[in-house]
Every structure is written in C-alpha cells, then in structure tokens.
Amino acid sequence: MLLYHGSNVEVSEPRLIPSERQLDFSNGFYVTTDYNQAAKWATSKVMRKRTGRASVSVYEVVESDWQSLAILRFRKADEEWLRFVNANRHGLTVECDADVVMGPVANDNTMPVLNLYFSGVYTEQEALRRLLTQKLKDQLAFKTAKAIRTLVFRECIAP
C-alpha cells in the first residue's frame, strides 16, 4: 500500500514531532492513501509556514507488517469518530493506546459543519447528517516509533 505525506519539505525519515495545532487524531505522523489530498496538505503547509516548497513524500507499507500494531480504525464519520475528533481538537486527553489511528479527514467543505458542531450550534446528530453528504478522504496518524518503522520511503514528488 502506498501512503502520501504532504509538507513544505521532503520527509525521507518520518519522526514523531509534537504539533503546535490540535489535530483530528492528536499528535502523530499523518499520511493519506490519496495523493491529491497530500498535495493539498503540502500547498497548505507552504502557505501556513511561508517557507519551503510543496512536497509529497511517498511511502510504502506492507500491511502484514501491521500485524503487531494496535490500530484504531474509524470506517466512517460516525458518533465515535466525531467524539474522538472533537476531544482531540479541544486538547482533551483521549485514552488511546493505538500505534496507528485511521479514519475520515475533514476537508475545506466539511470544516464549517465541524466548527458549528464544535461550537455547540449543531448537535451531534445534525453534524453527522450533514457530513453524510460529503465524500471524506482518509487520514492515518502514525502515533508510535514502532508504527513509523513500518513506513518505507520511496520518493518525493513536487505536485
């Protein structure tokens, strides 16, 4: 399986670096199975940091290498996913012993819905109803060094 990481630099040796932002799955090394999503992340990172150039680092991972990893998988944007993302986005401590967390990622179209939910304007049910109409991409957060070691760097592409 190929995975993509969008950044303002090539990342040939992924590391766990604490983020200055509150992310969906908390701290971790984030990748996606969707090249276009990673390219958007790369462009966004260049704009936010105002340095570097858009770069998509490509990794290969053999899923059989994951047999020894604890994986928390959210298959869709449901109540469990929404509560997990909400807690992480608000900096709350979430009990999670997973090496990898996988699931939907919000995009520019879904963030207004999530922000209205986070601020209490939408109920959980209303937010999920509105998210069902969206085609959400995926994200994987590699949260431990053990998980990071399953990533094999292949190349870096300038989108």
Describe the structure.
The protein is of the alpha+beta class. It has one domain (2-157). The chain is 29% helix and 23% strand. The chain contains five helices and seven strands; from the N terminus they run ββαββαβααβαβ. The protein has helices at 35-49, 79-89, 111-118, 124-131, 145-148; strands at residues 2-7, 29-31, 55-60, 71-73, 100-105, 137-142, 152-157. Strands 2-6-5-4 form a four-stranded mixed β-sheet. Strands 1-3-7 form a three-stranded antiparallel β-sheet. Helix 3 (111-118) runs antiparallel to helix 4 (124-131). The longest helix has 15 residues, at 35-49. The protein starts with a strand and ends with a strand.
Helical residue percent band: 25-40%
Question: What is the multimeric organization of the chains shown?
Answer: single chain
- Proportion of strand residues: 15-25%
Total beta-strand segments? 7
Keyphrases for this structure?
159 residues, alpha+beta, globular
Give the helices and strands, then pairings.
Layout: E1 2-7, E2 29-31, H1 35-49, E3 55-60, E4 71-73, H2 79-89, E5 100-105, H3 111-118, H4 124-131, E6 137-142, H5 145-148, E7 152-157
Parallel strand pairs: 4-5
Antiparallel strand pairs: 1-3, 2-6, 3-7, 5-6
Helix pairs in contact: 3-4
Could you provide a short overview of the structure?
The protein is of the alpha+beta class and 159 residues long. It has five helices and seven strands. The strands form two sheets. The chain has a four-stranded mixed beta sheet. It has a three-stranded antiparallel beta sheet with strand order 1-3-7.
